[in-house]
Amino acid sequence: MSDYMAYVWIGIAVVMAIYEMATTQLVTVWFVIGAVCAALTTLATGDIVIQIVVFVAVSVIALLATRPLVNKFRRNNIKTSTNADRLIGEIGVMNSDLSQPEDVGQAKVLGGIWSAKTNDPPLKKGDKVKVLAIEGVKLIVEKTE
């Protein structure tokens, strides 16, 4: 059994490496390292339990050692800030009427024309409105004095 285990571990390493290359994120590189170390362990011992312990231990250690580096380069949690947030709390003027909650109209805020909707209709053209929030590309507004 120990005669072919080195090939099994190398096979696992190759499959994990191919999977790693097919993805855009680091998901199996630690198992590649663990499988290579387990394959090297077959040179010293034929005990499968020891090989599995080496595989798991090296994989976990590699994961923990590279985690700070991976987190530094991950771009999944990067929020793209825009200056649209500055509109929240600003006062604008309606350019169209809104009679139903699902209606979308236009409001002029800080010199720009924006799509606007309200949770508290009706709003008439010329009404002063305050920007409460932004949902997608629409301002959520309410009538103000």
Annotation field: number of helices = 3
Shape category: rod-shaped
Write out the strand line-up for the largest beta sheet, numbering strands in chain order: 1-2-3-5-4
- Strand count, sense and closure of the main sheet? 5 strands, mixed, barrel
Order of helices and strands: HHHEEEEE
Radius of gyration from CA coordinates: 30 Å
List the helices and strands and how they pair.
Elements: H1 2-22, H2 29-41, H3 48-73, E1 91-94, E2 105-109, E3 112-118, E4 128-135, E5 138-143
Parallel strand pairs: 3-5
Antiparallel strand pairs: 1-2, 1-4, 2-3, 4-5
Helix pairs in contact: 1-2, 2-3
Characterise this structure.
There is one protein chain. It is rod-shaped and about 85 Å long. With 145 residues, the protein is an alpha+beta fold. Helix 1 runs antiparallel to helix 2 and helix 2 packs antiparallel against helix 3 (48-73). The mean pLDDT is 87. A five-stranded mixed barrel has the order 1-2-3-5-4. It has three helices and five strands.
